[in-house]
Amino acid sequence: MSELALALVLSPDEQIARSRVEISSIDDKLLTLLNLRQDHARRIGEAKRASGACVYQPGREREIVAALGERSTELLSPAHVRTIWSAIFDASRSVQEERVVAFLGPRGTYTEEAMFAHFGCAARALACESVDAVFAAVTGGRARYGVVPVENSTEGTIVRTLDLVLDTTVSVIGDVVLPIAHCLLSKDAGLADITCVAGHAQALAQCRRWLDACLPAAERRAVSSNAHAAQLAAQTPALAAIANRRAADHYGLAVIAPDIQDEQINSTRFWVIAKPRAARQDDERTLLCLELDNRAGALNSVLEPLAERHIAVTRIDSRPLKTELWAYRFFLEVACHPQHADLLDALQVMRDAARSVTVLGSCATQPESRHANHA
Ligand SMILES: O=C(O)C(=O)C[C@]1(C(=O)O)C=C[C@@H](O)C=C1
């Protein structure tokens, strides 16, 4: 009897039971094939170790997903293919290296969310108490990678991160942009019972208008992270925390008000840091630090060589030199691969005009905003 004819004579329960048997048998075959795939990934990992090649090859991953996406069907969309293969690549990379990733903790921070968005669940997470501790874990070899916040679309630069990248030997090797949806969390108090709101200074600032309108009399207490604020809220009934839903789940809190950020497009950029390594083929942005003489036209003389070669400057920031009054160093992001002939050419001219020019790292294509996983 054909499948169609059989479907007509089977009761719903019989159909479910029959298809479950088929699904179990398909899962069995999938698992065998996935193990075979993992074995090849392991062999590639050994070859990469021998040749010094990088484990993570985003270009190859994109190629695979694009080819499979073209064969997608009504039953399995390109988005499903992307999600499934993203987990397969995670597993595959995890047999090639153990990825300990330090992040600004504790558990439940937005940085943890960014870490999972970038590395998937195959990473072994190492929660650190401060941005400094994340850098120390990477420079000291306790973690291969680190994830730290660097810029918020409402509040601007996180200067400590910028200073540490400028002052240490680590490189920026990627970035992640997350939309930030702040919630007010409490153990079991209602809005009227809250006398204190704790959160990272940036989060308190990003919710200023909402707090002025809804909790004008409450004390605002700046703490080291939003997740730490959630820990405090779990212990103190009249204290509410500004944090994400991941923190609510992790610390057993209720969301008393969702989406309290003043700007709905509020997003944070996180940098992925590591010890210096060669740029990847598909890195399209290069990060630079420029130290300039304190004279008229100094900044212009380093920007001109870029403009002349049509290299766009996508970000510029200044930080005090600290060793000299009112003198600055400049952080630049430019839209070009670090080894591109035009950029190498520009850098040579810039080096003549500046006290020093340092390449701080490079990133792949500008990340799209990813939606926070509130599951
Ligand atoms: O092709 C490689 O270089 C692999 O290591 C295999 C593989 C994969 O699982 O397909 C895994 C990691 C890379 O980022 C790209 C692809």
Automatic annotation (TrEMBL):
Residue ranges of every copy of the Chorismate mutase domain listed in the record: 10-100
Keywords: Amino-acid biosynthesis, Aromatic amino acid biosynthesis, Cytoplasm, Isomerase, Lyase, Multifunctional enzyme, Phenylalanine biosynthesis
Pfam families named among the record's database cross-references: ACT, CM_2, PDT
SUPFAM superfamilies noted in UniProt: ACT-like, Chorismate mutase II, Periplasmic binding protein-like II
Pathway linked to the protein: Amino-acid biosynthesis; L-phenylalanine biosynthesis; phenylpyruvate from prephenate: step 1/1; Metabolic intermediate biosynthesis; prephenate biosynthesis; prephenate from chorismate: step 1/1
GO molecular function annotations of the record: chorismate mutase activity; prephenate dehydratase activity
ACT domain: residues covered: 287-362
Location relative to the cell: Cytoplasm
Domain of life: Bacteria
Enzyme Commission number, as recorded: 4.2.1.51, 5.4.99.5
Stated role: Catalyzes the Claisen rearrangement of chorismate to prephenate and the decarboxylation/dehydration of prephenate to phenylpyruvate.
The protein's name: Bifunctional chorismate mutase/prephenate dehydratase
Organism listed in the record: Trinickia fusca
